[in-house]
Amino acid sequence: MESAAEGGDMGTSIRWRGPRGAGWTTFRRSIGQLGGTAGMARTPEEIPNPRQGDGPISQRGVRTRGQRFFDALEEELRADPEAFGLRDTMRAGASRLVRAMNELRHDLAAFGPPPAEWTGSDTEWFMSEFVTAVAGERTGIIDAFVRRSATRCAEELLNDPRVRRAVAGQTRSSSLAMDLFCSVYRLFFADIVTEFAKAAVAEQVKLALPGLVLIDPGGQIPAWVGEQVASWIPNPCEQGKDDSDRSVADLAADLVGDNVDRALGLTSGTET
After folding, report:
1. Helices (H) and strands (E) in the chain, counts
2. Measuring CA to CA, how many Å separate 153 from each of 156, 189, 192, 246?
3. Where is this region: Disordered (predicted)?
4. Is residue 172 classed as helix, strand or coil in its secondary structure?
5. Of 122, 193, 264, 265, which is the most buried if we count CB atoms within 10 A?
6. Nearest-CA neighbor of 65 among 204, 213, 225?
7. By CB neighbour count within 10 A (0-12 exposed, 13-18 middle, 19+ buried), where does 156 fall?
8. CB-based contacts of 101, cutoff 8 Å, min separation 6
9. Sequential pLDDT tens for the chain (272 residues)
10. Helix (H) or strand (E) holding 102
11. How far apart are CA 233 and CA 262, in angstroms?
């Protein structure tokens, strides 16, 4: 796999060559099996789209293959910390997320009412402003993962009635609850790695031999990966109880770098 410096920063480039290191070969072999009920490809048209297997795989199989994903990712990032532009882009996005939510912590109407020319709803304006604040304007593949995760974070915020009322201008003054701040913070890390896992699975399938039977048509492996990451990210609200010198928002910001490495399985305590 080319590094960001060699192949173009994946945060800013739209090219996606996907994971290519040796560890990914083992992962690729584990997410499909040759032959099976589908048989070998009979025409060239059948090759690009592997046929699906017969149903969900066992939880043990999901765990085994999910761990191989983390093993391959760790191997690649330790060999080249800038691979995919993943760490830097995640850090930048998480830092912007904390700043955006900190504004909402002081005032849920921080993004203001939509301008007169806005033709959508108040919630659509909030979504647009929040996602732009977190994801920025870059158009790389990893940036797209950040944008999707920022969108899900905005949706999670809008699930809270207090946020919806404030966005709709139905309350004069309100602030983001800290428990919601902390849950969305943790969601962000897990969601980005889940999106990366989905892309990695898709890329490995494309690289597979003709006749591959995809054994995870339901996306169980990326879902398991996301669950693991969520369990690895400490709750800053809980951590803040033991740190009287910093606010929860400051603590969350200070721990972004550490939590990115936790999310990517690069620190101790992230064994599955």
Report:
1. 12, 3
2. 5, 10, 11, 24
3. 1-22, 35-61
4. coil
5. 193
6. 225
7. middle
8. 176, 181, 184, 185, 249
9. 333 333 334 444 444 556 666 778 777 777 664 334 344 334 444 433 444 444 567 788 889 889 999 999 999 999 999 988 999 999 999 999 999 999 999 999 999 889 999 999 999 999 999 999 999 988 888 999 999 999 999 999 999 999 999 999 888 778 999 999 999 999 999 999 999 998 887 776 665 544 444 556 567 888 999 999 999 999 999 988 887 788 999 999 999 999 999 999 998 655 65
10. helix 86-106
11. 7
Q: Which residues in 55-81 are b (16+ Cβ under 10 Å) and which e? A: eebeeebbeebbbbbbbbbebbbeebe
Q: Where are the beta strands (DSSP E) in the chain?
A: 32-34, 51-52, 212-214
Q: DSSP code of 84?
A: G
Tokens 């690069």 -> residue: 266
State both tokens at 146.
């950040």
User: Distance between CA 107 and CA 46 in Å, rounded?
Assistant: 55
Amino acid, single-letter form, for residue 227 = E
* Nearby residues of 196 by Cβ (< 8 Å), 6 or more positions away: 73, 84, 86, 142, 145
Strand order across the 212-214 sheet: 32-34, 212-214, 51-52
Q: And the tokens for 123?
A: 């919630």
| Contact between 251 and 239 (Cβ < 8 Å) | yes
Return the closest-CA partner of residue 190 out of 136, 127, 133, 265: 265
pTM over 0.70: yes
